[in-house]
Amino acid sequence: MTTAHASLLRGIFYFLLATASIAALPAAPAPAKAPSGRGTIDMPEFIRLYGIDFGSVSRFYELPWSDARLERLERVTHEWHTRLDAIDFDKLDSQGRIDWLLLRNKLTSESARLDLERRRIAEMDELLPSRKIIQELEQARWRMEPLDVQKAAGLISAIPDQVKKVRKRIEKEKKDSTKKEAREKPATDSTGAKDDSPGREDPKPAPEPALKISPSLARRTASAVSDLRGTLKGWAGFYDGFVPEFSWWMKKPDETALTALDDYAKWLREEIAGLKGGDEEPLIGDPIGATALEDDIAAEMLPYSAEQLIAIGEKEFAWCEARMKEAAQEMGLDWKAALAKVKGDYVPPGQQDSVVLEEARKSIQFLKDHELVTIPPLAEEIWRMTMLQPDAQKTMPYAAYSGPNMLVAYAKDEMKHEDKLMSMRGNNRHFMHIVVPHELIPGHHLQGFQAARHRAYRSAFSTPFLVEGWSLYWELMLWELNYSKSPEDRIGMLFWRMHRCARIIVSLKFHLGKMTPAEMVNFIVERVGHEKLGATSEVRRFITGGYSPLYQCGYMIGGLQLRALRRELVEAGKLKDREFNDAILAQGPIPIEFIRAALTQTPLRRDARPQWKFAGD
User: Fold this and answer.
1) Around Cβ 213, how many Cβ atoms within 10 Å?
2) Tens-place pLDDT, residues 107-119
3) Distances 528 to 55, 133, 392, 498, 500 between C-alpha atoms, Å
4) Distances, alpha carbon 1 to alpha carbons 5, 12, 16, 243, in Å
5) Beta strand pairing status for 384-387 and 400-402?
6) Rounded to the nearest 5 degrees, what angle is found at the Cα of 327, between the Cα atoms of 322 and 332?
7) pLDDT of 327-337, one tens digit each?
8) What percent of the chain is predicted at pLDDT more than 90?
9) Exposed e or buried b per residue across 236-260, where buried means at least 16 C-beta atoms within 10 angstroms of its C-beta
10) 420: Cα separation from own chain's centroid
11) Confidence of residue 530 (pLDDT cuts 50, 70, 90)
């Protein structure tokens, strides 16, 4: 046996071993027992093992938009739900019960997400005629089944014609979107009577019906086609050059299929969805609908409907408008004129870093002076700033955080003159006055620093209502503590607060089908006072699927939850500010109702559902 043969056999052995391990997930060793006093199950270890299993399955079945991937993820989710149900909840301590409920919600949410993905695949089924062919070839490769190259070449060579037929059906609908083609009627003679005479040729088969496709479905399908093309290319790359007859049979079919799929994806994206890459390309998103939104809200432990959350956003928005008018009166202007003046107070190009540094030092000193939260020296030391490139500013027009970097948007030489000015106005001194503490300390930088050091396993349950709510809570707190002394700085704070309220309204209405992307942009420009470039970039980020549907809602709603909890514990004299804020950071990024249960020592039941009406009834 040659070394090469030995290596190949070892590779096959380890592959089969790994595959068998995944198939045998239900028989995995039980989590280790916890130390005395923590109950019969070590929940952090249980959660860790769940994450390993789910991650292993997800990575192995890395076949996007495939039934096999969905079915396997559904199985592992069901298996872990069964294991979780077998745990004696009553024997867990308070943190163990929180962990049990966190995993229950995670598994329920994962099942709902897989259901949504399955529905979206069904919506694309007719538009992806080659999906199953390509995916079955790839899965046969995973199973290391012998390849019939000639048969595979026949399957692959049919792809361009399949794509061509689908394109014709879509084009047919596009030419006459107001009409639907009736089904073909039986053949008739000149008198209109049905001809049943023998010997007559069968009528031609009825033409394929037109296919109606919305811009959002076209965009999603274009992405799926690109994924399928990648799968086909990877499949062919595995054999090409290693199986001698592969290239002889497959070279031309593979080449033409890849070209057809590439052209199809480009055509869907550009001609049907209208996404040609220009500055004025349309805003296209994929609303999830009321049912899926309700599932997401329940998973976040919120006792409100989407409509009630919108009403909370509108109430907070009205409060901000009133305060904005008061600050503008101090400047002797109406609110829009005052906001325009604030926006005009920006630094010249090249000096934005000094603004960030000044505001960071100011907020840190304020926190220390008022003993509001513990700031470890290392957390204060290890952050820096990175400038966002113009392309990135299309979806991220303001500052953001990506540890250990604060990402800062500002004008760059290659931008259009108007875009430069909008970028500088949107990132002026007074806006940065609250943006910097939001992103750094006490915001995301401090939050991430502490999350890595306290119950890090709970990162599996990360929620925007704590991740973003924590930073927004500090915006509310700093306002109440008179952090801003000038009306200009207060307008800067109020601008962002109004923006967070607007995010609740526009994002939830979009997913409920009650607001179009264009209406979202208009609301943010007219009611909040955003620059058109910034508003468009914000909406594009909200709707294109990179964030969970509730992410934008999480800022203000999470901030309100934490503020309500502070009133319950700090203002009632049960905890000091520093104790309270440090305790929040030690719980990890989990739904705030569970944090409240931990801090107030509220008993939790196995069937716990959201009950805390933090915004009143």
Assistant:
1) 23
2) 999 999 999 999 9
3) 41, 50, 23, 6, 10
4) 6, 15, 21, 20
5) unpaired
6) 115
7) 999 999 999 99
8) 77
9) beebeeeeeebeebbeebbeebbeb
10) 29
11) confident
* Per-residue pLDDT at 195 exceeds 60: no
The answer to whether 353 touches 427, Cβ cutoff 8 Å, is no
**Alpha-carbon dihedral sign for residues 302, 305, 311, 314:** positive
**Integer angstrom CA distances of residue 8 from 1, 19, 140, 509:** 11, 16, 18, 56
Q: State the angle between helix axes of 592-600 and 464-480 in degrees (0 to 180), rounded to the nearest 10.
A: 70
Residues paired with 406 in a beta bridge: 385, 401
Quote the CA–CA distance of 139 and 289 in Å, as a whole number.
33
492 Cβ partners below 8 Å, 6+ apart?
Answer: 342, 428, 429, 430, 431, 432, 433, 434, 484
Q: Which residues does 179 contact at the CB level (< 8 Å), separation at least 6?
A: none
Cis preceding linkage at 376, omega within 30: no
- Smallest Cα–Cα separation from 461: which of 290, 274, 299? 299
With H, G, I as helix, E, B as strand and everything else as coil, classify residue 39.
coil
Angle at 39 between CA 35 and CA 44, to 5 degrees: 70
The amino acid at residue 2 is T
Type of residue found at 402: S
**What's the token pair of residue 585?**
């950071």
Q: How many CA atoms are closer than 13 Å to the CA of 269, on its beta-carbon side?
A: 15
- Residue 188 is classified by DSSP as B
**For residue 278, what are the contacts with CB-CB under 8 A and spacing of at least 6?**
none
What residues contact residue 301 under an 8 Å CB cut-off, 6+ apart?
105, 591, 592, 593, 594, 610
Alpha-carbon gap, residue 610 to 129, rounded angstroms: 43
Which tokens hold the place of 101?
């409920």
pLDDT interval class at 225 (50, 70, 90):
very high
At CB < 8 A and 24+ separation, what contacts does 568-576 make?
Answer: 568/596, 568/600, 569/599, 569/600, 575/599, 576/371
* Contact present, 512 and 293 (Cβ < 8 Å): yes
Residue 385 phi, psi dihedral angles, 5° rounding: -120, 140
Looking at the whole model, is its pTM more than 0.90?
A: no
Buried b (16+ CB within 10 A) or exposed e, 79-89: bbbebbeebeb
DSSP structure string for 117-153: HHHHHHHHGGG-TTHHHHHHHHHHHHTTPPP-HHHHH
Task: Report the candidate in 217, 247, 69, 224 with the shortest Cα–Cα distance to residue 156.
Answer: 247
Helix spans in 158-280 (H)? 159-175, 215-239, 244-267
Exposure on the CB side of residue 521, measured as CA atoms within 13 A: 16
